[in-house]
Design goal:
Largest sheet: 5 strands, antiparallel
Strand content: 25-35%
Distance between the termini: 180 Å
Structural class: mainly beta
Number of strands: 14
Shape: elongated
Oligomer: single chain
Helix content: under 10%
Radius of gyration: 80 Å
Length: about 350
């Protein structure tokens, strides 16, 4: 304690305060201070509590501690002893009769009793009523096909219809006429009632020249083996040698008209190479008209035609129709060449 006083006094002196001369009391405890008494004497007085300082800021939470190990399970406690049985209490006095209780509820249905033994057979009972109809059975499988029925009787023949009547004839020819219901057949007029081409077997010229005529001609009466680049003239009569002269190859016109068609047929025994040749016609030795241009004899039988000709001729004129051969690499052998000219 003295040390505390000395420290206090020392502090006062250091702070520049002065204490008047007096007597300092002894003792003093923590929290007391010197207080001047009477005269020059001092005494210890309890100090008043200081103003509570402001609450300091809450410190940061500390980190969680490590989880402790799980403790061991405690052992089971002992069973407590059974308490002693209490003594029987005295008998109470008889109580008065209570009021009649309400009717009890119906008891539950008792269990079904065991099946009794079979009784004596009774007399035959009456016949029961007819039971309801059973449901339809499943559809049966399709039966096999029945045999064919017999053929029906033929119907009676119908009556013959009435004869129809012809009232008109269609078309323009007049070799058939109609008078009432009578048809009369007349003669056919060739100039007005006939069209088309009349074949040779029926007396025609086998070409559609109308009232015209035809001229048939050929190269030779025998097979020839034509030379290169040579003109062979067609003639309307048989010759014994190849005709290569225009004078001997003249064909005279007997009736004026127009040459309109040309047909040719070449037959050959040995076909040569495929170079082409042409057929020409002249009138009275004039300029040549090409009839067939650049055609090859490419098979054992070759046909040619030109039906768009229009070459005018008069009675007494002469024409030359000739074939100019090619220059073959391989010449044909054994050839006949016949033509027909149509004039109308």
């Amino acid at each position: 304690m003295k040390n505390k006083v000395l420290a206090f006094v020392t502090a006062i002196l250091l702070s520049g305060c002065m204490i008047a001369q007096g007597t300092l009391p002894s003792g003093g405890v923590n929290g007391q201070y010197l207080q001047k008494g009477t005269g020059t004497n001092y005494k210890w007085a309890n100090g008043t509590s200081g103003v509570t300082g402001a609450t300091g800021a809450t410190g940061a939470n500390g980190s969680n501690g490590v989880t402790g190990a799980t403790g061991m399970a405690g052992s089971d406690g002992f069973d407590g002893a059974i308490g002693a049985t209490g003594g029987v209490g005295p008998t109470g006095s008889t109580g008065s009769n209570g009021a009649t209780g309400a009717a009890g509820s119906n008891g539950t249905v008792g269990l079904t009793g065991a099946t009794g033994a079979t009784g004596i057979t009774g007399s035959t009972g009456l016949i029961g009523s007819t039971g309801s109809a059973g449901s339809n059975g499943a559809t049966g499988a399709t039966g096999s096909a029945g045999t064919n029925g017999t053929n029906g009787i033929n119907g009676a023949t119908g009556a013959t219809g009435a004869t129809g009547s012809i009232t008109a004839l269609a078309g323009t020819p007049t070799y058939i006429t109609l008078s009432g219901s009578t048809i009369t057949r007349g003669q056919v007029t060739l100039t007005t009632d006939v069209t088309g081409v009349l074949p040779l077997a029926n007396g025609g010229n086998n070409h559609g020249y109308g009232a015209g005529y035809r001229i048939d001609a050929g190269l030779a009466a025998t097979l020839i083996s034509p030379a290169d680049a040579t003109s062979y003239f067609f003639q309307p009569y048989s010759v014994n040698s190849t005709n290569t002269g225009s004078t001997r190859g003249r064909i005279y016109i007997t009736k004026s008209g127009i040459i309109e068609a040309f047909y040719g047929n070449a037959q050959i025994n040995s076909v040569g190479s495929g170079e082409t040749s042409s057929v020409f016609i002249t009138v009275n030795g004039g300029a040549a008209t090409t009839i067939i241009s650049a055609q090859a004899i490419g098979a054992s039988s070759t046909q040619y035609s030109n039906t768009s000709l229009s070459i005018a001729v008069n009675a007494g004129d002469y024409i030359n129709c000739y074939w100019t051969t090619a220059t073959w690499a391989t010449n044909p052998i054994g050839l006949t060449f016949n033509i027909t000219l149509g004039i109308r």
